[in-house]
Amino acid sequence: MPIKLSLPETGETLLAKAEIRPRKTKAWLEALPLANIVESARNVSEALISLNRTPLDVSTRLKLLELYSTAINNLVPELEHKYTMVALPLPEKNRQAANLARRLYVELAYGYKIILMDHLEKKRIRIGGRAHLHLLIQRAMDALSKALCAFYKTYSPTPSGMWSEIHQLAQLALLRNLHDKPLDGGRNSVSSTYKRALLLALANPYKLMQGEVDKVTDYLVEHANLAKLYPIQDKRSASGVFVINLDSDAPPKSIDQNAKTTTYNHILLGTDALVSTLNEQIARLETASMQRTLNLADHAKQVSYIGLMRRLLKDWTFMPKRKFQRKINEAVMEVCVGLRAMCHFILSQSEAVEQTPLDFRIDTIPGTDRTGQTEHAHFASSQWAVTNESAGGIGLKCASALSQPIRIGEIIGLRSQDNQNWTIGVVRRVFSEDSDRVELGVQMLAPTAAPITIKPVVAGPKETFQAALLLPEIRPLQQPATIVAAPATFRSKLEYLVYKNGVVSHVRAMRLVDQTASFDQFQFSTE
Predict the structure, then answer these.
(1) Whose CA is closest to 75, among 34, 47, 35?
(2) What's the pTM value of the predicted model, to 2 decimals?
(3) Peptide bond before 251: cis, by omega within 30 degrees of 0?
(4) Number of domains present in the structure of the chain
(5) Which residues pair with 230 in a beta bridge?
(6) Of 428, 446, 464, which marks where a domain is finished?
(7) Which of 74, 227, 318, 350 has a C-alpha 20 to 30 A away from that of 506?
(8) Radius of gyration over alpha carbons of the chain, in Å?
(9) Residues 165 and 262 in one domain
(10) Does one domain contain both 12 and 129?
(11) What is the pLDDT of residues 147-196, one digit of tens each?
């Protein structure tokens, strides 16, 4: 099959002469100082760029690439601390670190593709007397997949051509029956690497909260092979079946049983066994089974991890269709970010409301008094352009300088120019192409909310009332009243004191509705 893979320009001016002696390269890579991780990563990037543009025999290039692969896989996790948990838009230094991680994996992929294309053009697949074609395919695909992850982790668009190359590599392995050939002591194969990339894309990475891409990736290392690839002719139930167009530059999508899908260069991904295992793991975690007995990471014991697993269960069973039709809308919305900011702005609507003072301070702010009363400017809002709207949510694009960084799972307030009331939403999707452009997908939670303060009835001497929101009951949607409070507030059946408009009441937490890194939302009982 003809294969078209991007390769580096050989005429580029090199920053430095490439070191081509494996022993010297190994010693240099092992001696890299981790104290300055950005500088070390930049030096590796420059060295790899030079290597990929230097003529070299195949055997030596492969040895060097394996050394660089090990070093890069050790460097990037340290480099990620600079950007993966930083709210958007990324500051310039953090964005440079993210670009550096992407560049490392793109260049690593270049190196393996250089060898692969050389072999395919010369119709030989042996290096030093050993067949290595499946290794080259897997290594190139793995580097491209990790480059994709680097884009996902910063909610940035993936470059054109990247999915096309991953599909081409998979097709080459399938045609030569190399896809299941084991590598690295049985830990890797082309098939397992391909399925990890496909399943991560199906997990909606632009809707994952910060840190969750790594959790999904860790899960897939152990469980991706439960998914199966099979011919398009073997069409099954639409549930848990996704179609892959090997000629496309796009991830898989749900199969439409009524659509006419050509059988040429299409294959299917079935997730039945994966979904069944995931379902069992969720059930056993909910009954307090040890995560290690379920072949899960230590963080599986966290409540938020079970929430992630439930979302994966839906994503890997089918790609849900939109409940409401999107409508193009060119309005402008005022947006405030975070619980304290929302309480501040809602309260400022009516000075006549008597309310127990809330400590709205995010940090200790010079010029504020000890009661937590702050100036309006400390809770600035920003202007966002509406890109589309439906009954269940709204798309926003930043139309002014952001007053506060934002991330997935953040609670936000929105109001239009002709409405004084704040609507409550939660950020479910983020897309950030550069430092000046941030786009959001927001799920609407309630048309209004009341600021309250809350703390457990039985509390420690240092435990104080915390700012929270009371969301009203919405009877047409059969949606009961809920409380939105700071993260880790919810404890099932625990009693809380709630202050609203100067009146104290008792409530009992009943059911956790939603939980993110920014808030807990739960139903309650007043009985």
Answers:
(1) 34
(2) 0.86
(3) no
(4) 4
(5) 268
(6) 446
(7) 350
(8) 26
(9) no
(10) yes
(11) 999 999 999 999 999 999 999 999 999 999 999 999 998 899 999 999 99
